[in-house]
From TrEMBL:
One of its GO terms (cellular component) is membrane. Signal peptide: none annotated. This is Ubiquinol-cytochrome C reductase iron-sulfur subunit. Its cofactor is [2Fe-2S] cluster. It comes from Hyphomicrobium sulfonivorans. CDD domains: Rieske (cd03467).
Amino acid sequence: MLAAACPGLAQANTEPKPITAPQPGDSFVHLSGPKVGQPVVAEDLQIGAPKLAYPIDPASGEVRRARASQVVLTRLDPALMSDETREVAWNGIVAYSAICTHNGCPVTGMRNPHTLLCPCHESEFDIADKGKVVHGPAQRRLANLPLKTTGDAIMVAGPFSGIIGAQTK
Ligand code: FES
């Protein structure tokens, strides 16, 4: 009845919600900095210089703009990577959730070339070892986002490896 009186409401209720979680085959766009909105390419990523990115559906061009989809991409020496990390990296590039598992701050810093640092309370995560916590207060590793190769593109290979941020389930 209400929908009949308000056609716009009926339409709003039936429209599919956009998928905000990263999907296999997604690529990435810069979330900040001078290249904001542009595709992230391998040359943008240097050791010790993490970049924040959003996944993007390459077919529709829709950016998956949700806090829980924010990703930190960086490069590290493959020789430092655990076997498990090497399996989910591409060409020395790794991707992790950018949301700290302690209290949800963006993880934007680096303590050293293989340790991401959360600036809020200084939790540290070893990105050469699948995001393992090496310094608290965080108790849970950062979720890894597996990558794959297709030509020169950096692409998502599968879902996050764990719970995002400070959520408990
Ligand atoms: S929110 Fe990251 S250490 Fe507290």
